[in-house]
Amino acid sequence: MIDLLVFVPACFALNLAFGPNNLLALGHGAERGVGFAVTAGLARLVVFAPMIAASALGLGVLMATSATLFGAVKVIGALYLLWLGVKLLRSRPKDAAATVPVPTGLRTAWRREGLAAISNPKAILIFAAFFPQFVDPAAYWASYATLGGLFLVLEAGAITVYALAGRFAARFAATRLHWFQRASGAGMVLFGLLLLLSPQPGRA
To answer: Domain residues of the chain, as ranges?
Structure first.
Protein backbone atom coordinates (compact mmCIF):
# COMPACT_ATOMS: atom_id res chain seq x y z
CA MET A 1 0.00 0.00 0.00
CA ILE A 2 1.31 3.43 -0.97
CA ASP A 3 1.96 5.76 1.97
CA LEU A 4 0.42 8.87 0.43
CA LEU A 5 0.85 10.89 3.64
CA VAL A 6 4.59 10.68 3.07
CA PHE A 7 4.72 10.50 -0.72
CA VAL A 8 2.58 13.54 -1.57
CA PRO A 9 4.41 16.18 0.54
CA ALA A 10 7.83 14.68 -0.20
CA CYS A 11 7.12 14.55 -3.92
CA PHE A 12 5.70 18.08 -3.99
CA ALA A 13 8.84 19.34 -2.24
CA LEU A 14 10.82 17.80 -5.09
CA ASN A 15 8.46 19.28 -7.68
CA LEU A 16 8.99 22.72 -6.15
CA ALA A 17 12.78 22.39 -5.99
CA PHE A 18 14.66 24.95 -8.04
CA GLY A 19 15.86 23.80 -11.42
CA PRO A 20 15.92 24.88 -15.07
CA ASN A 21 12.27 24.00 -15.71
CA ASN A 22 10.92 25.87 -12.69
CA LEU A 23 13.08 28.88 -13.47
CA LEU A 24 11.67 28.84 -17.00
CA ALA A 25 8.13 28.83 -15.56
CA LEU A 26 9.07 31.74 -13.31
CA GLY A 27 10.44 33.72 -16.23
CA HIS A 28 7.54 32.87 -18.51
CA GLY A 29 5.06 33.96 -15.87
CA ALA A 30 6.85 37.27 -15.37
CA GLU A 31 7.09 38.08 -19.06
CA ARG A 32 4.04 36.53 -20.68
CA GLY A 33 1.56 35.65 -17.94
CA VAL A 34 0.35 32.59 -16.07
CA GLY A 35 -1.54 31.02 -18.97
CA PHE A 36 1.50 31.20 -21.23
CA ALA A 37 3.78 29.73 -18.56
CA VAL A 38 1.41 26.87 -17.75
CA THR A 39 0.87 26.04 -21.42
CA ALA A 40 4.61 26.00 -22.06
CA GLY A 41 5.13 23.91 -18.95
CA LEU A 42 2.91 21.16 -20.33
CA ALA A 43 5.88 20.23 -22.52
CA ARG A 44 7.73 18.88 -19.51
CA LEU A 45 4.74 16.70 -18.57
CA VAL A 46 4.73 15.24 -22.08
CA VAL A 47 8.43 14.41 -21.63
CA PHE A 48 8.12 13.08 -18.08
CA ALA A 49 5.29 10.62 -18.86
CA PRO A 50 7.38 8.24 -21.04
CA MET A 51 10.33 8.69 -18.67
CA ILE A 52 8.13 7.39 -15.84
CA ALA A 53 7.04 4.44 -17.98
CA ALA A 54 10.64 3.58 -18.84
CA SER A 55 11.60 3.81 -15.18
CA ALA A 56 8.75 1.46 -14.25
CA LEU A 57 9.93 -1.15 -16.76
CA GLY A 58 13.52 -0.96 -15.53
CA LEU A 59 12.56 -1.11 -11.88
CA GLY A 60 10.29 -4.08 -12.53
CA VAL A 61 13.25 -6.03 -13.89
CA LEU A 62 15.36 -4.95 -10.92
CA MET A 63 12.77 -6.07 -8.38
CA ALA A 64 12.39 -9.43 -10.11
CA THR A 65 16.13 -10.15 -10.16
CA SER A 66 17.64 -8.79 -6.96
CA ALA A 67 16.14 -7.72 -3.64
CA THR A 68 19.60 -6.52 -2.60
CA LEU A 69 19.88 -4.16 -5.56
CA PHE A 70 16.37 -2.92 -4.91
CA GLY A 71 17.34 -2.17 -1.32
CA ALA A 72 20.40 -0.30 -2.59
CA VAL A 73 18.15 1.82 -4.82
CA LYS A 74 16.09 2.68 -1.75
CA VAL A 75 19.15 3.90 0.13
CA ILE A 76 20.39 5.87 -2.88
CA GLY A 77 17.01 7.58 -3.15
CA ALA A 78 17.03 8.60 0.51
CA LEU A 79 20.61 9.87 0.27
CA TYR A 80 19.68 11.84 -2.84
CA LEU A 81 16.92 13.60 -0.94
CA LEU A 82 19.35 14.43 1.86
CA TRP A 83 21.97 15.73 -0.57
CA LEU A 84 19.51 17.89 -2.48
CA GLY A 85 17.99 19.21 0.76
CA VAL A 86 21.37 20.21 2.20
CA LYS A 87 22.32 21.83 -1.09
CA LEU A 88 19.16 23.95 -1.05
CA LEU A 89 19.62 24.87 2.62
CA ARG A 90 23.12 26.13 1.84
CA SER A 91 22.03 28.15 -1.19
CA ARG A 92 22.49 31.89 -1.30
CA PRO A 93 19.80 34.45 -2.17
CA LYS A 94 21.54 35.28 -5.44
CA ASP A 95 21.17 31.67 -6.55
CA ALA A 96 17.38 31.84 -6.19
CA ALA A 97 17.23 35.16 -7.99
CA ALA A 98 18.97 33.82 -11.07
CA THR A 99 17.14 34.43 -14.31
CA VAL A 100 16.88 32.52 -17.54
CA PRO A 101 16.28 33.78 -21.04
CA VAL A 102 12.57 34.05 -21.73
CA PRO A 103 11.52 33.02 -25.23
CA THR A 104 9.21 35.31 -27.14
CA GLY A 105 6.96 32.65 -28.64
CA LEU A 106 5.03 29.67 -27.32
CA ARG A 107 6.67 27.27 -29.75
CA THR A 108 10.13 28.26 -28.52
CA ALA A 109 9.00 28.15 -24.90
CA TRP A 110 7.53 24.65 -25.39
CA ARG A 111 10.74 23.43 -27.00
CA ARG A 112 12.95 24.81 -24.23
CA GLU A 113 10.75 23.33 -21.51
CA GLY A 114 10.90 19.93 -23.22
CA LEU A 115 14.65 20.00 -23.71
CA ALA A 116 15.20 21.09 -20.11
CA ALA A 117 13.01 18.20 -18.92
CA ILE A 118 14.88 15.61 -21.01
CA SER A 119 18.22 16.71 -19.59
CA ASN A 120 16.96 17.18 -16.03
CA PRO A 121 18.94 14.83 -13.73
CA LYS A 122 16.55 15.61 -10.88
CA ALA A 123 13.63 14.05 -12.74
CA ILE A 124 15.64 10.97 -13.70
CA LEU A 125 16.67 10.41 -10.09
CA ILE A 126 13.12 10.94 -8.82
CA PHE A 127 11.75 8.25 -11.13
CA ALA A 128 14.62 5.82 -10.61
CA ALA A 129 15.43 6.31 -6.92
CA PHE A 130 12.53 8.10 -5.21
CA PHE A 131 9.52 6.24 -6.60
CA PRO A 132 10.81 2.80 -5.50
CA GLN A 133 10.42 3.85 -1.87
CA PHE A 134 6.65 3.69 -2.31
CA VAL A 135 6.07 0.93 -4.83
CA ASP A 136 3.92 -1.93 -3.57
CA PRO A 137 5.47 -5.15 -4.98
CA ALA A 138 2.11 -6.92 -4.65
CA ALA A 139 0.47 -4.38 -6.96
CA TYR A 140 3.51 -3.12 -8.82
CA TRP A 141 2.03 -1.67 -12.00
CA ALA A 142 -1.01 -0.15 -10.31
CA SER A 143 1.08 1.50 -7.61
CA TYR A 144 3.65 2.82 -10.10
CA ALA A 145 0.88 4.23 -12.30
CA THR A 146 -0.60 5.92 -9.22
CA LEU A 147 2.75 7.41 -8.27
CA GLY A 148 3.37 8.58 -11.81
CA GLY A 149 -0.05 10.19 -12.09
CA LEU A 150 0.34 11.95 -8.77
CA PHE A 151 3.78 13.20 -9.76
CA LEU A 152 2.44 14.73 -12.98
CA VAL A 153 -0.44 16.41 -11.12
CA LEU A 154 1.94 17.81 -8.51
CA GLU A 155 4.34 18.93 -11.24
CA ALA A 156 1.50 20.84 -12.88
CA GLY A 157 0.87 22.45 -9.49
CA ALA A 158 4.53 23.46 -9.26
CA ILE A 159 4.37 25.01 -12.72
CA THR A 160 1.38 27.05 -11.63
CA VAL A 161 3.08 28.17 -8.41
CA TYR A 162 6.14 29.43 -10.25
CA ALA A 163 4.07 31.02 -12.99
CA LEU A 164 2.00 32.91 -10.41
CA ALA A 165 5.16 33.95 -8.55
CA GLY A 166 6.65 35.31 -11.73
CA ARG A 167 3.50 37.10 -12.89
CA PHE A 168 2.19 38.68 -9.72
CA ALA A 169 5.17 38.83 -7.39
CA ALA A 170 8.23 39.30 -9.57
CA ARG A 171 9.91 41.76 -7.22
CA PHE A 172 9.16 39.61 -4.19
CA ALA A 173 10.36 36.51 -6.00
CA ALA A 174 13.64 38.15 -6.92
CA THR A 175 14.49 39.05 -3.32
CA ARG A 176 12.75 36.46 -1.13
CA LEU A 177 12.48 33.33 -3.23
CA HIS A 178 15.47 31.81 -1.47
CA TRP A 179 13.25 31.31 1.62
CA PHE A 180 11.02 29.00 -0.42
CA GLN A 181 14.17 27.28 -1.62
CA ARG A 182 15.39 26.69 1.93
CA ALA A 183 11.99 25.55 3.16
CA SER A 184 11.92 23.02 0.34
CA GLY A 185 15.41 21.90 1.32
CA ALA A 186 14.41 21.38 4.95
CA GLY A 187 11.46 19.28 3.85
CA MET A 188 13.67 17.12 1.66
CA VAL A 189 16.12 16.51 4.49
CA LEU A 190 13.24 15.44 6.76
CA PHE A 191 11.70 13.06 4.24
CA GLY A 192 15.12 11.73 3.27
CA LEU A 193 15.72 10.71 6.87
CA LEU A 194 12.27 9.13 7.12
CA LEU A 195 12.84 7.12 3.96
CA LEU A 196 16.32 6.06 5.01
CA LEU A 197 14.91 4.64 8.25
CA SER A 198 11.78 3.10 6.75
CA PRO A 199 11.54 -0.63 5.90
CA GLN A 200 11.69 -1.79 2.31
CA PRO A 201 8.20 -1.92 0.74
CA GLY A 202 6.67 -5.34 1.11
CA ARG A 203 9.21 -6.38 3.77
CA ALA A 204 7.96 -4.51 6.85
So the answer is: 13-197
